[in-house]
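Please check this one:

***
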Amino acid sequence: MAEPHDLTALEQAVAIARGELSSVELVEHHLTRVDALGDTVGAFVTVTGERARAAARAADAVPAEERGPLHGVPTAIKDLTLTAGVRTTFGSAAFADFVPPVDADVVRFMAQAGLVSLGKTTTSELGCSLYSEGLVAPPARNPWGLAYTAGGSSGGAAAAVAAGLVPVAQGSDGGGSLRIPASLCGLVGYKPSRGLVSGGPVGSGAYGLPTNGPIGRTVADVAALLDVLARPVPGEPYLAPAPPEGGWLGAARRADPGRLRVGRFTAPMLADEPVHPDCLAAVDRAAALLTAAGHEVVDVPAPIGPAVWPLFEIVWYVLALAPVPPEREADLLPLTRHLRARGAEISAGTLTATLGELQAQVRLGVRRTAGCDLLLCPTLAAPQAPLGWFAEGGDPAEDFDRQRRFSPYCAVFNVTGDPSVSLPVGVTAEGLPVGVLLTGRYGDDARLIATAAQLEHSSGGWDRHPAIWRAVGSANVNGSGVGRSAP
């Protein structure tokens, strides 16, 4: 007999369709868990309980023939994502009371699909760091070990999913912000191809680096949410790749990418940093599973090397220059102020030249691996990082450099625009998760998702849970219990 939160997102929707559960019951169950564990793992900035209950009642009233694969399922929205009528702080005390008048496109799509948001998840301030430890909410902690960070900038989303507070969540990824927390928390974090998911209706586009995307416990759940998020919107600056037959969920369920050539490398791309043996072992395990599935795995050079870091650095400084009311600048964290100060020193000409040179270097790197269908590498240079470790010295420059050395892989694929996913293939001797990064060709999300699903099946499944998972429960919420169903 399973608790409702034991079910995957797709299984929860099946339970609703069969009449075993209602959306209202699922929402109440998960809100109970949020109330008990939300602050412990630092998952939420704002919980919207009454709004969620109303949405669940509306979801239950929708005729069965009008329901999609995730209808009525609880979820959450990252606090960087505009949500009309709901406090959205961007992870910053400078916006502690900001309430947007409009929804981001992805928020609107999720509501139209019948998903029920329980609130806004913790993020790093303005999305500037790979850990989520700000002033507007408790720090996002790893449910597998509360002394460790859940990562960032989608750290609260990862903490919420890994602790069983929601089965799947929306996040965004501008330099690894979905894949880093997924690796740390034992989840599937998916960065779609550039243009596949709308970043509208407002925003600069940030040179095409960030994109909205899903995070969940299984590839199928993540693919189902991608189907919801990836809808064409007029006016978007990048051409969206076409979906496969049956959508992204169909690709995950088929789990048949054909025979592929997979290029493996482990050399860090943005830092000259030793890679932890557990991260290397996870890559080896993934390579062995891919080989056993019939794919050709070959060693390739890393597409780029640490010499390119100064170009990335300039772009990151400028991206920190989000509009902030002048009178609220003092409310920003030291790291954010440091990045913005550096960004303010960069001229338009320097930025333009940097973007051009960076694209040229990335083009050369992509050509070095052009014979490969997929690339396999570590997600991070180390399996975990203690809470507070990045900023412990009090020097923002050292903080930023520690982040670079901890995550020297993910950001490259934000520049290329390629689809990239972190998969929880490995585990440390202490039982903590270790992710690997699988990256596809631009626009070839279907093959990447199919391969990820194939790897999940050959691994025996990744829906593992930390000890905190059993800390709260409510057996038999509808009096008859809930059994696991095939997604």
Q: What stands out?
A: The radius of gyration is 21 Å. The longest helix spans residues 348-368. Residues 4-465 form a domain with the Amidase signature (AS) enzymes fold (CATH 3.90.1300.10). DSSP finds 15 helices and 13 strands in the chain.
